Amino acid sequence: MKNTPEIKLGVVAVSRDCFPIELARTRLSNVVGECQKLGLPVFPCSQVIESETDAMVAVEEMRGKGVNAVAVYLGNFGPEGPTTVFAKELGVPFMLCGAAEESTAKLIDGRGDAYCGMLNACLNVELRGLRSHVPAMPIGLPSEVATMIAHFVDVARVVVGVKNLKTFSFGPRPQDFYACNAPIRPLYNLGIEVMENSELDMFELYKAAADRASEIAAIASDMAKELGEGNMHPEKLKQLAQFELALMTFFEENLGSRQFGVYANKCWPSFEKAFGFVPCFVNSRLASRGIPVACEVDIYGAVSEYMAQLASGLPATLLDVNNTVPMDLKIADPKGMERSDMFMGFHCGNTPSCHLKAGFAMKHQLIMHRLMEPDSEPDITCGTLEGRIKAGPITLFRLQGGAGDKIRSYVAEGEVIDADPCSFGGIGIIAIRNMARFYRHVMLQHQFPHHAAAGFESVGKILYDATKLLGVDEIYHPLTPGDRYPTENPFRK
């Protein structure tokens, strides 16, 4: 997928000088071998770090190999000072892991004491003001360490993507959509660059693309192919294609210092009157190529979408946590969920067609039509992609900045239920166990907005670890009935 970092993971062994260095070398070799069995493209460092001088040699070797994330492996106890000097100087996301003792035969000359060394390493990470990824059980045999590294590759992809990201916005947000406010400083604190533009800038870009007839025709043809029988408004394809061309051109010309980008764009109400269509189908197409386009100038929504995309390896979308599921709506297989666990995830039509069941179509947007042209046939409100979201795993995720540079997030795994929502838009019935309490005591209590990013895999573990590694300490998730939220009435029945 485009607009996604490729992780080149270095693996570096450390060794305390009073332990045999060959212990670290041999164990590193065994870990690399297990990584190769898993198909992980790791780059072992030939320099084992015993001293600060060794640390700088290892930094240069890893930079020479183009490494953008690193696993620091305690082949034995390890020297905490040089270990953290290496991590700080290399300046890429890093994890700490270590070697377990292989057998009783190794407990004299082959005892590494990495269990002990990890304590000192983590202490020194804190003293230097660094953040490291530490697995749930960081000390293991080579095959176990390789599994830890595989997970870290996914975590690092999210972190590297965010730290090399630029958000493009065309706004302002619609009236009364205060939920889509975007304090800039927390974005800067995450390492994200921001470029804000107006609707007039967007309109000028659109007009400037008008004379690129052959490119517009090619995009329109591709749109028609994607829609197939769902092309309900073929008369709009040329305009939509011109808009897509304008956005892609702007994207390619304005990344500047960054490698990756996302959009957060104004999409109503003035948009339709100026452009003559709704942009939803174009937004869905860009998302399918790895460039999320958040509705309603929701910059944090766009970043959340991008993180869900990086975690899942699939296009993501942005959904409203929208409405309840009536009791008379038939659900053959609720996946063991209660109705209170369910809600409808909806948006006008920005979900990529790859996540919609057969029968999706480009239609007019009902809500916009009621608002803008209620007494006439749909015209300026055409261009949304409607369909039912496919059944399968889903992860809801939100990163949100607030007052005082505070940033918080939530992550929740669930299922898209295989049932007809009996409604319009890009929509699906989503079930998350213990959702009602989560909605009340996390989403409402902590002022999260109505938009949630949706990743179409169960990637809660990746997103949780990546968000934590980015420096976000306030990360919420659904609690089981036996665990009480701080704001929950203890006498509730």
Number of domains: 2
| Low-confidence parts | none
The total count of helices amounts to 15
Mean pLDDT value: 96
What Rg, in angstroms, do the CA atoms define? 25 Å
Order of strands across the main sheet: 10-11-16-15-14-17
Largest sheet: 6 strands, antiparallel, barrel
**3D shape:** globular
Helix content: 25-40%
Please state the structural category.
Answer: alpha/beta
The end-to-end span amounts to 48 Å
DSSP strand (E) fraction? 15-25%
Per DSSP E runs of 2 or more residues, the count of β-strands stands at 18
SSE topology:
Blueprint: E1 9-14, H1 21-37, E2 42-44, H2 52-64, E3 69-74, H3 80-90, E4 94-99, H4 114-127, E5 139-140, H5 142-163, E6 165-171, H6 184-190, E7 193-198, H7 199-208, H8 213-227, H9 237-254, E8 260-265, H10 270-275, H11 280-288, E9 293-294, H12 299-312, E10 317-323, E11 342-347, E12 361-364, H13 366-372, E13 382-388, E14 392-401, E15 407-417, E16 426-431, H14 435-444, E17 451-455, H15 460-469, E18 474-476
Parallel strand pairs: 1-2, 1-3, 3-4, 4-5, 6-7, 6-8, 8-9, 13-16, 15-18
Antiparallel strand pairs: 10-11, 10-17, 11-16, 12-13, 14-15, 14-17, 15-16
Helix pairs in contact: 1-5, 2-3, 3-4, 5-12, 5-15, 7-9, 8-9, 9-11
